[in-house]
């Protein structure tokens, strides 16, 4: 193994380091208290998906027992052991953080109480609520009555109950109750006592009422602990070509509930006899990642923790900004015809994009709208505008990605809704996920076809747009719009060859373009010219691209990276990456935009992209990177990058140790990039 190959960080460990940064936000006392709870929810949800997808993949590698299988040079069992140690360490930090936040909430007169802390007035309320709302939807199972252990659903939490009696003639019994969070709220707000506000979790309401649940038996002591099983989420796509793609995906999503166990989490105070019974009945073992935890699980629900009216405990909601180039109640298409527009959500209002689609849906000159859809909101305004376009006689083409993980069912639903009103639906290209975020609007002007285009770094999803930081280019530049149209033609005729001079598309062209741009910087550095690369991205994993960046480093190219999530490249190693600096910003908004800047001998090249630098994005997906030609937008992107590179409040250093040290500055004043960016766009609007 060469020295360079040893300088690739394992992606799973790097991902856990990213989730540790999320946990740091929950620990940060400068973050409002309820937002800290919500970061715990994000951490938990992230970890669920990590086990369902990444750990499941490694487990499959272990199961097939092929010795040559390695993950970044290490055997899967060794990686699994590292993951378990890291996860247990994070879980302990999580529990400590949770209890500190709960204690701090009490100082604000908000109390999260359990079943043993209930006063008489609350008891009356809880009994009534339990009888009317909870008991009718409970399905307790007496475990000694069944031949095999009940199936534990993914994403669900269960109360494992131990029932005993002071009468020695009554034997011990075990029971299982699914906590019905799919039909009832997880958080029950109890009657207020003056200034004191009380919240109880649904499972504690059930614990309080276990005597009612099991009233027909002769037990007088009830103890219950939460357990949770995480299952493999990968879709099993077989080669049965007689099934339609839609049928396969539908079958795969249904099969997800029966995936193999990859993690079993339990309350670490659970009775040992009950735990042993469950583990033996489920046939679990160490490779299933047995993770002891605290009293509560499924913390993803804490993303929706109730505020109870105290706005000091949540982030201040900034007023959404308009864009200086787009005037209220004027045609957005006419504005784009004059000049390229770059929206940066959530600073700019995503409703500008929705208004564009709504305008196109009723404009008599618009003949066609084409769009790629990877994820959309639950009650999607984008979909509604497209359906309205169909009703107004427009030709609507939607390329819907059915393999958008965890959104497959929603995308199947929306594809059927669009088909019902006459839209043309494509389900992408066999073997290639469609991850590009594109719109083409064709309009007849002076008897000629004029195309308007949109290229985004994120999904056309108004929910995501309120928390994901993304860029949306709106343009009438023929160099770009003509090639956006080519991409949509490709979906209809995938066997034709299409050449692109401006857009950079994967899987055929993006890797080559990256190599070419990096090699150009290497040549310039060797010739004594200024040479640098600035990259803002979510994940940097592809080994060959990382090797290219190492070679550029050795040639003297200065490289600055802003990587939110996984970074397999190790910066700052003498002889390998001493010219590479890398930071990660985790803050109020999820950094999701991808920006590429190459010095190019002083004539800088700018791109925005839907693609991270991962092998799957470059080789097995349809992605698009779009050049930015407008000089004003180039400056805006450079300003944005410089603001983020100055962050000394939420930026962490990426290094070999993966210890997430905060960036320090000689200045006493904290510089928080997301806050500064909001002010930057606000001031631009005032100036114009």
What would you say this structure looks like, in words?
By secondary structure, this protein is α/β, with parallel strands linked by helices. It folds into 3 domains: 5-306, 2-Layer Sandwich (polyphosphate kinase like), CATH 3.30.1840.10; 332-501, Endonuclease, Chain A (2-Layer Sandwich), CATH 3.30.870.10; 505-687, Endonuclease Chain A (Endonuclease, Chain A, 2-Layer Sandwich), CATH 3.30.870.10. It has 18 helices and 26 strands. Strands 14, 18, 19, 20, 21, 23, 24, 25 and 26 form a 9-stranded mixed beta sheet that branches. Strands 10, 11, 12, 13, 15, 16, 17 and 22 form an 8-stranded mixed beta sheet that branches. Strand 19 (532-537), helix 15 (543-555) and strand 20 form a beta-alpha-beta unit. Helix 2 (33-63) runs antiparallel to helix 3, helix 14 packs parallel to helix 15 and helix 17 packs antiparallel against helix 18. The longest helix is centred in the N-terminal third of the chain and has 32 residues, at 76-107. The protein is globular. It starts with 10 loop residues before the first helix and ends with a helix.
Quick synopsis:
With 688 residues, the protein is α/β, with parallel strands linked by helices.
Relevant CATH superfamily of the largest domain: Polyphosphate kinase middle domain
Structural class based on helices, strands and sheet pairing: alpha/beta
Number of helices: 18
Q: What is the annotated CATH architecture of the largest domain?
A: 2-Layer Sandwich
Largest sheet: 9 strands, mixed
* Tally of distinct domains: 3
Q: Look at the structure and give the mean pLDDT.
A: 91
Q: What portion of the residues fall into strands of 2 or more residues?
A: 15-25%
- Estimate the helix proportion, in percent: 25-40%
CATH class (first level) name of the largest domain:
Alpha Beta
Poorly predicted regions are 1-5, 235-243
Count of individual beta strands: 26
Shape: globular
Radius of gyration: 27 Å
Task: Quote the distance from N terminus to C terminus.
Answer: 57 Å
CATH topology title of the largest domain: polyphosphate kinase like
